[in-house]
Design brief:
2 domains; four-stranded antiparallel sheet; mainly beta; elongated; Sulfite Oxidase, Chain A, domain 2; 242 residues; Immunoglobulin-like
Length: 242
Protein backbone atom coordinates (compact mmCIF):
# COMPACT_ATOMS: atom_id res chain seq x y z
CA UNK A 1 0.00 0.00 0.00
CA UNK A 2 1.35 3.42 -0.93
CA UNK A 3 1.55 6.61 1.09
CA UNK A 4 -1.10 8.44 -0.90
CA UNK A 5 -0.48 11.77 -2.57
CA UNK A 6 -0.26 15.45 -1.71
CA UNK A 7 -0.75 18.29 -4.14
CA UNK A 8 -1.39 22.00 -4.11
CA UNK A 9 -3.10 24.47 -6.42
CA UNK A 10 -4.12 28.10 -6.56
CA UNK A 11 -7.89 28.38 -6.31
CA UNK A 12 -10.07 31.32 -7.29
CA UNK A 13 -13.65 31.65 -6.15
CA UNK A 14 -16.27 33.51 -4.16
CA UNK A 15 -16.69 33.18 -0.41
CA UNK A 16 -19.65 30.93 0.30
CA UNK A 17 -21.13 33.43 2.74
CA UNK A 18 -21.28 35.99 -0.12
CA UNK A 19 -23.11 33.52 -2.37
CA UNK A 20 -25.56 32.69 0.43
CA UNK A 21 -25.89 36.22 1.79
CA UNK A 22 -29.69 36.36 1.46
CA UNK A 23 -30.35 32.68 2.09
CA UNK A 24 -29.36 32.31 5.75
CA UNK A 25 -32.22 31.30 8.02
CA UNK A 26 -32.48 32.25 11.70
CA UNK A 27 -32.91 28.53 12.44
CA UNK A 28 -30.05 27.40 10.17
CA UNK A 29 -27.96 24.55 11.59
CA UNK A 30 -26.05 23.21 8.57
CA UNK A 31 -25.52 23.87 4.88
CA UNK A 32 -25.92 20.93 2.48
CA UNK A 33 -23.91 20.59 -0.73
CA UNK A 34 -24.90 18.22 -3.52
CA UNK A 35 -22.61 17.20 -6.34
CA UNK A 36 -23.74 16.34 -9.85
CA UNK A 37 -22.16 12.88 -9.57
CA UNK A 38 -24.43 9.94 -8.73
CA UNK A 39 -23.96 6.26 -8.10
CA UNK A 40 -25.09 3.16 -6.25
CA UNK A 41 -23.04 2.52 -3.09
CA UNK A 42 -22.53 -1.21 -2.63
CA UNK A 43 -23.90 -1.20 0.92
CA UNK A 44 -26.94 0.91 0.07
CA UNK A 45 -28.32 -0.64 -3.10
CA UNK A 46 -29.99 2.53 -4.36
CA UNK A 47 -28.83 5.38 -6.59
CA UNK A 48 -27.94 8.58 -4.76
CA UNK A 49 -26.01 11.79 -5.37
CA UNK A 50 -22.89 12.71 -3.43
CA UNK A 51 -23.91 15.00 -0.57
CA UNK A 52 -22.07 16.45 2.41
CA UNK A 53 -22.92 19.20 4.88
CA UNK A 54 -21.01 21.78 6.91
CA UNK A 55 -21.92 23.26 10.29
CA UNK A 56 -23.33 26.74 9.90
CA UNK A 57 -20.43 28.41 11.72
CA UNK A 58 -17.93 26.80 9.33
CA UNK A 59 -20.00 27.52 6.23
CA UNK A 60 -20.16 31.22 7.12
CA UNK A 61 -16.38 31.51 7.53
CA UNK A 62 -14.28 33.65 5.21
CA UNK A 63 -12.14 30.82 3.81
CA UNK A 64 -14.86 28.46 2.50
CA UNK A 65 -15.10 29.08 -1.24
CA UNK A 66 -17.27 28.27 -4.20
CA UNK A 67 -14.33 27.90 -6.58
CA UNK A 68 -14.46 28.41 -10.35
CA UNK A 69 -10.78 28.57 -11.32
CA UNK A 70 -7.71 26.45 -10.63
CA UNK A 71 -4.23 27.83 -11.28
CA UNK A 72 -5.79 30.76 -13.14
CA UNK A 73 -7.88 28.64 -15.52
CA UNK A 74 -11.41 27.15 -15.42
CA UNK A 75 -11.48 24.11 -13.15
CA UNK A 76 -11.13 20.99 -15.33
CA UNK A 77 -13.82 18.30 -14.95
CA UNK A 78 -11.41 15.85 -13.29
CA UNK A 79 -10.90 18.35 -10.47
CA UNK A 80 -14.60 19.07 -9.97
CA UNK A 81 -15.30 21.85 -12.47
CA UNK A 82 -17.01 23.97 -13.48
CA UNK A 83 -17.84 24.75 -9.83
CA UNK A 84 -16.71 23.05 -6.64
CA UNK A 85 -16.67 23.72 -2.94
CA UNK A 86 -13.35 24.31 -1.22
CA UNK A 87 -13.00 23.81 2.54
CA UNK A 88 -9.37 24.56 3.52
CA UNK A 89 -7.76 22.34 6.15
CA UNK A 90 -10.46 19.64 5.92
CA UNK A 91 -10.24 16.24 4.28
CA UNK A 92 -11.14 16.31 0.59
CA UNK A 93 -14.57 14.72 0.88
CA UNK A 94 -15.84 17.99 2.39
CA UNK A 95 -14.88 19.91 -0.77
CA UNK A 96 -17.80 18.70 -2.90
CA UNK A 97 -16.96 18.50 -6.61
CA UNK A 98 -19.24 19.30 -9.56
CA UNK A 99 -21.31 21.46 -7.24
CA UNK A 100 -24.96 21.39 -8.34
CA UNK A 101 -27.03 22.48 -5.34
CA UNK A 102 -26.66 24.29 -2.01
CA UNK A 103 -29.35 24.09 0.65
CA UNK A 104 -29.61 25.63 4.12
CA UNK A 105 -30.92 23.13 6.70
CA UNK A 106 -32.63 23.64 10.05
CA UNK A 107 -31.52 20.18 11.25
CA UNK A 108 -28.36 18.04 10.94
CA UNK A 109 -27.98 16.19 7.65
CA UNK A 110 -28.11 12.40 7.93
CA UNK A 111 -27.26 11.26 4.41
CA UNK A 112 -25.16 8.22 3.49
CA UNK A 113 -21.87 10.07 3.01
CA UNK A 114 -22.39 12.00 6.23
CA UNK A 115 -23.38 9.20 8.61
CA UNK A 116 -22.25 5.93 7.03
CA UNK A 117 -19.11 6.86 5.12
CA UNK A 118 -16.24 9.25 5.87
CA UNK A 119 -16.91 9.07 9.59
CA UNK A 120 -14.92 8.06 12.67
CA UNK A 121 -16.83 7.02 15.80
CA UNK A 122 -20.02 8.26 14.17
CA UNK A 123 -18.65 11.75 13.51
CA UNK A 124 -17.96 13.11 10.01
CA UNK A 125 -14.31 13.59 9.12
CA UNK A 126 -13.27 17.19 9.47
CA UNK A 127 -9.82 18.74 9.97
CA UNK A 128 -6.81 16.98 8.43
CA UNK A 129 -4.55 15.30 10.97
CA UNK A 130 -0.82 16.17 10.99
CA UNK A 131 1.32 13.71 9.08
CA UNK A 132 5.03 13.15 8.52
CA UNK A 133 7.02 10.91 6.18
CA UNK A 134 10.73 10.18 5.77
CA UNK A 135 12.00 10.63 2.21
CA UNK A 136 15.71 9.98 2.74
CA UNK A 137 17.27 7.52 3.29
CA UNK A 138 15.04 5.24 1.25
CA UNK A 139 13.74 1.88 2.39
CA UNK A 140 16.53 -0.72 2.25
CA UNK A 141 19.34 1.82 1.79
CA UNK A 142 22.90 0.87 2.76
CA UNK A 143 24.59 3.88 4.38
CA UNK A 144 27.67 4.74 6.40
CA UNK A 145 27.12 5.79 10.01
CA UNK A 146 28.96 9.10 9.64
CA UNK A 147 26.94 10.02 6.55
CA UNK A 148 23.48 9.22 7.86
CA UNK A 149 21.27 12.24 7.13
CA UNK A 150 17.55 11.84 7.79
CA UNK A 151 15.18 14.02 5.77
CA UNK A 152 11.44 14.19 5.35
CA UNK A 153 8.30 16.28 5.17
CA UNK A 154 5.46 17.10 7.53
CA UNK A 155 1.99 18.39 6.69
CA UNK A 156 0.00 20.25 9.29
CA UNK A 157 -2.65 22.92 9.64
CA UNK A 158 -1.48 26.47 10.12
CA UNK A 159 -2.74 30.01 10.37
CA UNK A 160 -1.37 32.98 8.51
CA UNK A 161 1.07 34.74 10.78
CA UNK A 162 1.08 38.53 10.93
CA UNK A 163 3.67 40.77 12.60
CA UNK A 164 2.54 42.79 15.60
CA UNK A 165 2.35 46.52 14.98
CA UNK A 166 4.51 47.75 17.80
CA UNK A 167 8.00 48.98 18.56
CA UNK A 168 9.14 45.37 17.99
CA UNK A 169 7.82 45.33 14.44
CA UNK A 170 11.27 44.95 12.89
CA UNK A 171 12.18 42.08 15.21
CA UNK A 172 8.86 40.29 14.61
CA UNK A 173 9.18 40.66 10.85
CA UNK A 174 12.64 39.07 10.96
CA UNK A 175 11.22 36.15 12.95
CA UNK A 176 8.45 35.69 10.42
CA UNK A 177 10.91 35.63 7.53
CA UNK A 178 12.95 33.00 9.35
CA UNK A 179 9.81 30.97 10.00
CA UNK A 180 8.59 31.06 6.41
CA UNK A 181 11.95 29.84 5.15
CA UNK A 182 11.07 26.64 6.99
CA UNK A 183 7.30 26.53 6.53
CA UNK A 184 5.18 27.18 3.49
CA UNK A 185 1.44 27.78 3.72
CA UNK A 186 -0.53 26.23 0.87
CA UNK A 187 -3.87 27.15 -0.63
CA UNK A 188 -5.58 24.41 1.37
CA UNK A 189 -4.61 25.86 4.74
CA UNK A 190 -1.94 23.21 5.14
CA UNK A 191 1.80 23.66 5.55
CA UNK A 192 4.76 21.57 4.48
CA UNK A 193 8.13 21.70 6.18
CA UNK A 194 11.38 20.00 5.31
CA UNK A 195 12.92 18.26 8.30
CA UNK A 196 16.57 17.26 8.37
CA UNK A 197 18.66 15.63 11.05
CA UNK A 198 22.29 14.60 10.63
CA UNK A 199 23.67 11.86 12.87
CA UNK A 200 27.38 12.42 13.70
CA UNK A 201 30.03 9.83 13.05
CA UNK A 202 30.73 7.27 15.76
CA UNK A 203 33.43 8.66 18.05
CA UNK A 204 34.10 5.35 19.77
CA UNK A 205 37.40 3.52 19.20
CA UNK A 206 35.40 0.41 18.41
CA UNK A 207 34.08 0.11 14.87
CA UNK A 208 30.40 -0.88 14.95
CA UNK A 209 29.28 -3.89 12.98
CA UNK A 210 26.77 -3.48 10.16
CA UNK A 211 23.31 -3.16 11.67
CA UNK A 212 19.73 -2.87 10.52
CA UNK A 213 18.05 0.28 11.82
CA UNK A 214 14.46 1.52 11.72
CA UNK A 215 13.83 5.26 11.53
CA UNK A 216 10.33 6.47 12.38
CA UNK A 217 8.34 9.50 11.33
CA UNK A 218 6.48 11.04 14.26
CA UNK A 219 2.71 10.82 13.87
CA UNK A 220 -0.16 9.07 15.58
CA UNK A 221 -2.86 6.63 14.56
CA UNK A 222 -6.53 6.69 15.46
CA UNK A 223 -7.75 3.24 14.47
CA UNK A 224 -10.98 2.80 12.54
CA UNK A 225 -12.29 0.05 10.32
CA UNK A 226 -12.01 1.96 7.03
CA UNK A 227 -8.62 3.51 7.75
CA UNK A 228 -9.65 7.17 7.60
CA UNK A 229 -7.23 9.85 8.82
CA UNK A 230 -4.41 7.31 8.91
CA UNK A 231 -1.21 9.05 9.95
CA UNK A 232 0.45 6.15 11.74
CA UNK A 233 4.21 6.00 12.25
CA UNK A 234 5.79 4.38 9.19
CA UNK A 235 9.22 2.80 9.74
CA UNK A 236 12.02 3.04 7.18
CA UNK A 237 14.40 0.09 7.44
CA UNK A 238 18.00 0.71 6.42
CA UNK A 239 21.41 -0.92 6.91
CA UNK A 240 24.05 1.15 8.67
CA UNK A 241 27.78 0.36 8.33
CA UNK A 242 30.58 1.70 10.49
Amino acid sequence: MGLGAVGTAEWTGVALHSVMERAWLPTAVEVLFRGADEGVPKDLGTRIAYERSLPIDVARGDDVLVAYAMNGKPIPPEHGGPLRLLVPGWYGMASVKWLAQIQVLDRPFAGFFQKDRYVIDGRPLRAIEPRAVITSPAEGADVSWGQLDVRGYAWFRSRTARPHRSHEKRRNTARLRQRFRRTRRSSHGMSSASVSRSIPANTSHRTPRPTATAIHSRSRLRWNALGYANNAVRPVRIRVRG
